[in-house]
Amino acid sequence: MLVTKPGIYPDVDFNEYLADVCPDASLNASIAKVLIEQSPRHAWHAHPRLNTRWEQREDKKFDVANVAHTLLLGRGKKFVAAPFDAWTTKASKSFRETAQLAGQIAVLDKHLDLARAMVSAAVAQLTEQGCPEAFGRINGKAEVMVVGQQETIWLRCLIDWISNDLLHVYDYKTTKGSASPAAIEYKMVEDGWDIQAAMQEKVLDVADPVGAGHRHWRFVLQEAYEPFALTVAELPETVMDMGRRKLGTAIDKWSQCIKSGKWPSYSEGVVRPLYPTFKEQQWVNREVDSENGQ
């Protein structure tokens, strides 16, 4: 599949999206995050259209969270139930290898049962928290690709779920840590939800300018262990603004690198690091304590 113009593309195969279906190497949120947190060279290395040695990482197994993602959205990587307790027998290993050859990932029955319980808990909690529409098959679509352009730069994103009116976006995340509201802020920044939402906003505003300024981004973070608690976080304007600023920096860097063909690493010269202020203060305190005989 090759996309030749900006727009909204439902039913795109995940592997095709990952490989980049735009006419030229395009920028998505994950590459933008690498670009601003590491370097252009890291971004080049992670991009399937720029790095000729790039290879898609193939998961040998599906964990509970990945299965839950597919079950909740109704789309995603294909899997098949494996009637075994573990992957220790010759028969179970043969079953898994056969599934892989067929483009599927084998999932132990016990893990599939846990994933179903996780999804059931998610649906119940979403309803309790006033979000019954989230991930619905009738009032929205799952795994929708949106492609946009800024001058000559191609941009793309894959949205977990978007309402039919293109105004409400839900993204499903899982964690082996805490999904409590207190943990959301750190998780949001660490995982780049702000950049992801800003990229989706930018390409959606190109594809659907009428909806610009009226969209809402909600991230559903669920714990991948019982009782499968979750929190729904709607990104406020302050967070969206930070995401736009970061994305703007990433697009500028990407544009410069695409035009020049140069993908520098961390620094082009010798750096002279400053001593961390808090470490300096720790040492000063230690000296003071020593002088006071402590």
Mean pLDDT: 90
Strand order of the largest sheet: 1-4-5-6-7-8
Unreliable sequence segments: none
The SSE order reads EHHHHEHEHEEEHHEEHH
Q: Sum up the overall morphology in one term.
A: globular
Structural class comes to alpha/beta
The share of residues in helices is 40-55%
Distance between the termini: 70 Å
Number of strands: 8
- Major beta-sheet overview: 6 strands, mixed
Percent range for β-strand residues: 15-25%
**From the coordinates shown, what is the CATH architecture?**
Alpha-Beta Complex
Structural notes for this entry:
- The protein is α/β, with parallel strands linked by helices and 294 residues long.
- It has one domain: Lambda Exonuclease, Chain A, CATH 3.90.320.10.
- It has helices at residues 14-19, 29-37, 40-46, 64-73, 90-101, 109-128, 181-190, 193-207, 237-260, 277-291; strands at residues 7-9, 79-82, 105-108, 140-150, 153-163, 168-175, 216-223, 230-234.
- A hairpin with a 2-residue loop joins β4 and β5.
- The longest helix has 24 residues, at 237-260.
- The radius of gyration is 22 Å and the shape is globular.
- The mean pLDDT is 90.
